[in-house]
Specification:
It is globular and about 75 Å long. Helix content is 26%, strand content 23%. It is α/β, with parallel strands linked by helices and 407 residues long. The chain has three domains: 280 residues, Metallo-dependent phosphatases (Purple Acid Phosphatase, chain A, domain 2), CATH 3.60.21; 70 residues, no CATH class; 35 residues, no CATH class.
Amino acid sequence: MTNEPIRVLHFADIHIGMENYGRIDPDTGLNQRVLDFVERLKDIVDYALEHDADAVIFAGDAFKTRDPNPTYMRAFARQIKRLAGADIPTVLLVGNHDMPMIETRATSMDIFAVLDVANIIVGRKEEVHRLHTKRGLLQVATVPWPQRSRLMQMDEHRGQTVEELDRELEKTLAEELERLAGEIDPAHPAILTGHFSISGAAYGSERGVMLGRDTVIKLSALSLPAWDYVAMGHIHKHQDVNKGAYPGVVYSGSLERIDFGEEREAKGFCWVEAARGGTRWEFVPMHVRPFVSINADATDDGESPAEAVVREVERHDVKDAVVRVRVKLLQSQEPHFRARPVLDALAEAYLVAGIAKDVQRETRSRIGLENAESLTPEQLLDRYFVSKDAPRERIDALMQAAKRLME
């Protein structure tokens, strides 16, 4: 035991099983994007071993679904076993993607607890764990994904609306957070790890893959003096919700990009040096699969619009990237556009997600808006329907409905 800070690696949201923009790997028969996520987990473990981590905190969502297939579970377990074998205490928090719909069913993490794997702690309930590391005692409080079903089983909450249950769940969770803070020994560093949303946090693409209704907790319930660091999971965008204040309330973010909504987001994990009252942390970016959007304007290229796209492709690094292309064309150019030269220019890309054509259609002047300011909203709408070649009887029916809405 030393007086050095305790070295902790904090990461979250692996989502093994995510197959967006993937293709089959011929060597394994698995989706290559799944292998990307597994490789990032391996990188995490490599870093922990190489940098002599004292503890690892995984803040939830190991898999894409609540019932992952055995191959994905094996891939996850192989890497966790490496941490256990190196005598690194590791906390596996249960996230919403790990949590079954029915509370009595097993989570995808429970196998580690059942087998009593040394150095592995499964955080399925709200409690304080005391980790004995080579640099001293570290207290880690776990707050897994809050289940609404727990409240629905209580007589006093039966028949309540979803909104009433949400408010009650947030109140209950705030009380649990306060209780956990009261169990902390102030002589040793303490970390809270949770998997839920915090008011004021900026969301990423997790909304598109979220399982279950979200629960939002106020920052004031987390930024308590008991904690030296708050290790969060669930939101894919890395951020410190308590920026500039102590303790850091940090979402490490996901390890790989899910879609183009995360194209410009750095992905990685947090390296924490935990000390009572003086914890420091940093975000460590990882090399992940790039996503690249290419927007090309070919309206000045006459009958060779593909050339404009090829020139734009050459301005981007597309090697091993998931790429999407959007090309702006005049209506007269559309018949002349050929995708083959563009695909040839993208030969080094991992996957071309699509080539979309934004065709500027010639506008018709039948709407007659020379004196638009003199027309009523009803007259403007009527002329719009006329410009769309809608039958007169259809226009009359639409106008009657529009008038009722306006009234």
